[in-house]
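Notes from hallway chat w/ T.B., transcribed later so I don't forget. T.B. wanted the structure written out for a chain they're using in a teaching module, and asked if we could keep both sequence and structure tokens in one place. Agreed to drop them here.
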Amino acid sequence: MTQSERRTYLIRRLLDENKQYSGMPVPIKEEEQRRLLRSLMNIRQPKKADLDFLNIQDEYLRAETAAKGITDIKELAPIEKDIYLWQGDITALKCGAIVNAANSGMTGCYCPCHGCIDNAIHTFAGIQLRLECAKIMERQGHAEPTGKAKVTEAYNLPCRYVIHTVGPIIDGDVSNEDNELLASCYLSCLTAAEEKGIDSIAFCCISTGEFHFPNRQAAQTAIKTVRQYKETTGSGIEVIFNVFKNTDYEIYREFLGQNK
């Protein structure tokens, strides 16, 4: 099967799965197909799929990620011992675990083609990730508290695991509690990673963007918390601060001493 054939197959299966969209024609243009497939995956409720669907989905997603270009942590140079700064798409990063800035529902973003990291991670991991998260939440029986973390498989992502954490949502000035909760996100992720035997972790800019935590203050808290954790515990875990925007890259370079 070509990528085009896989994409068409997946679209038709997802359209037929939903009575509301059954019979809808598949767009001819490739970009429209990509957008429709991602949208259908985004709105799909957590549930099982048959092996034919999963096998073709997995082949499709892995080929898409390979086409984007995978960056291995082994290719990166540390800024300081065991700490890295990398700008790029976290869904194309090969390391022990990547961190997902999740919401309290923990099953991903249901808004079609939304630009948040939660949406991207669930899209390129595949539908299995949402189902695993839903099972975790069903067992838990309540929304995920802010500042905690959960570990899942990564499925079709090049990393081994995804660590999901819910950061504080800022409405107005940042309080001491907000800072403490953000620090707790980093500590919870590091602790969960070490308990799982994960030797490297990539942090996105937790709580910035949709959750409105000021970028500079968030970066300060992130770096301070990671450094203190490593100093206090003697941990050898490798930490990647992953940024996507140029603004965040410059902020982290400044706070990590690269602009001196």
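Follow-up for T.B.: Residues 49 and 167 are 31 Å apart (CA to CA). Might be a good example for the class.
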